[in-house]
Specification:
There is one protein chain. By secondary structure, this protein is an all-alpha fold. The chain has a domain of 38 residues. The protein has two helices and no strands. The radius of gyration is 24 Å and the shape is elongated.
Protein backbone atom coordinates (compact mmCIF):
# COMPACT_ATOMS: atom_id res chain seq x y z
CA UNK A 1 0.00 0.00 0.00
CA UNK A 2 2.74 2.45 0.88
CA UNK A 3 4.43 1.76 -2.45
CA UNK A 4 1.29 2.87 -4.31
CA UNK A 5 0.86 5.96 -2.16
CA UNK A 6 4.49 6.87 -2.72
CA UNK A 7 4.06 6.52 -6.48
CA UNK A 8 0.88 8.60 -6.40
CA UNK A 9 2.58 11.35 -4.38
CA UNK A 10 5.58 11.29 -6.68
CA UNK A 11 3.36 11.61 -9.74
CA UNK A 12 1.37 14.43 -8.12
CA UNK A 13 4.58 16.25 -7.29
CA UNK A 14 5.85 15.91 -10.84
CA UNK A 15 2.57 17.15 -12.31
CA UNK A 16 1.86 19.88 -9.76
CA UNK A 17 0.07 22.24 -12.10
CA UNK A 18 -2.19 19.55 -13.49
CA UNK A 19 -3.13 18.37 -10.00
CA UNK A 20 -3.81 21.96 -8.94
CA UNK A 21 -6.01 22.53 -11.99
CA UNK A 22 -7.95 19.35 -11.30
CA UNK A 23 -8.58 20.46 -7.71
CA UNK A 24 -9.51 24.01 -8.68
CA UNK A 25 -11.93 23.16 -11.50
CA UNK A 26 -14.82 21.99 -9.24
CA UNK A 27 -14.28 24.93 -6.89
CA UNK A 28 -14.45 27.41 -9.75
CA UNK A 29 -17.54 25.69 -11.15
CA UNK A 30 -19.26 25.88 -7.75
CA UNK A 31 -18.43 29.56 -7.37
CA UNK A 32 -19.73 30.24 -10.90
CA UNK A 33 -22.98 28.39 -10.14
CA UNK A 34 -23.47 30.43 -6.97
CA UNK A 35 -22.74 33.67 -8.85
CA UNK A 36 -25.25 32.77 -11.57
CA UNK A 37 -27.85 31.93 -8.95
CA UNK A 38 -27.34 35.24 -7.17
CA UNK A 39 -27.34 37.18 -10.44
CA UNK A 40 -30.67 35.65 -11.45
CA UNK A 41 -32.32 36.80 -8.25
CA UNK A 42 -32.03 33.52 -6.38
CA UNK A 43 -35.71 32.73 -6.88
CA UNK A 44 -37.06 29.66 -8.59
CA UNK A 45 -40.52 28.82 -9.80
CA UNK A 46 -41.41 25.17 -9.54
CA UNK A 47 -45.19 25.38 -9.89
CA UNK A 48 -46.63 24.57 -13.29
CA UNK A 49 -49.82 23.20 -14.77
CA UNK A 50 -50.43 20.98 -17.75
CA UNK A 51 -53.64 21.79 -19.58
CA UNK A 52 -55.94 18.80 -19.80
CA UNK A 53 -54.15 16.81 -17.10
CA UNK A 54 -56.43 14.57 -15.05
CA UNK A 55 -55.66 16.15 -11.70
CA UNK A 56 -56.28 19.67 -12.99
CA UNK A 57 -59.87 18.95 -14.02
CA UNK A 58 -62.65 19.89 -11.66
CA UNK A 59 -65.64 17.61 -11.29
Amino acid sequence: MSKYLYRLAHLACQRRRLVLAIWQAPAIAAIAAIAIDLASGGRTNDSFTIPGAGTARRC
